[in-house]
Amino acid sequence: MRIILITGGVRSGKSAFAERLAQQQKQEHGGTLVYLATGQAWDEEMQNRIHLHRERRENNWETVEEPYELQAAIQTMAEADTHEAASESSLVLLDTFSGWIANVLMQMPEDQLSKSAIRQACQQQVISCVSAMRSLDRTWIVVSDEVGLGGVALSKLGRAFQDITGFANQIVAQYADEVYLVVAGIPMKIKGSEARDK
Question: Is Transferase among the key words of this record (predicted)?
Answer without folding.
Answer: yes
